[in-house]
Structures are given as C-alpha cells and as structure tokens.
Amino acid sequence: MNPYAAYKRQSITTMTPIEIVVKLYDECERQLNRSIPFIEEKQYGNAHTALARASEMVDALREVLNMEAGGEISKNLDSLYAYFYRQITYADTKKDVKTVQELIPQIGELKDAFVQLSKLPREATAAV
User: What are the C-alpha distances in Å from 49 to residues 43, 92, 121?
Assistant: First the structure.
C-alpha cells in the first residue's frame, strides 16, 4: 500500500466531525478558486471538473448535518448548502466567474465559523 494513502486514511479516521467539516469547506474553496482561471482561459472541461468537485463537497456538507440534534442551525445550514449548490450549478452552466467569486468568501466565512467551533469543548459542538 502507498504510504501516503495509508497516512491520509489514518488522518481522516482520527478527525473529529468538525475537523471533517472544515476539510470539506477547504476543498470546496480550493475547487472554486481553481475553476476561475479555467473559466477565464476557456478551459471549460477543467472548469466543469473543479465546479463538480466543489458541488460534491457541498453535498458532503449536507450529508454530515445532524438534522435531529442540530435543530434550527442545521436547517439553516441545509438551506445555505442548497443555495451554494444551485449557485455552483449556475456558475458551471453559464461559466460565470462572478458567481464563483461571490461564493468563495461566503464559504470562507462559514469555514472560519467552524474553525472557531473546533476550538470549543467537544460537548458544545455535538449538535452541529
């Protein structure tokens, strides 16, 4: 087995749920940022791939929501993730850099909030 793959698998299995969420936000941001030059350079296949991966990260964020324990916060996040998904789909369909550029700071703000949550005791974050 590839030592890097083994390390990566081990690091994911030892992450807290909040750390996983932060990683998903990181990857979503990364893919959105990657899509911009691809769109600008009319490399639409690469742009689509990056935006599709960003959409996958948003889907994963929706999947890890704890709707029962999270209450109103989880419902609001779910609505926000649905909005992100629609916007990414729109940006992909229209090859619209502006839409991507508007999403990046919104996702960054949420990531920062989860980074702050990750610093709280585990009991305080169980509902999210």
Answer: 10, 9, 37
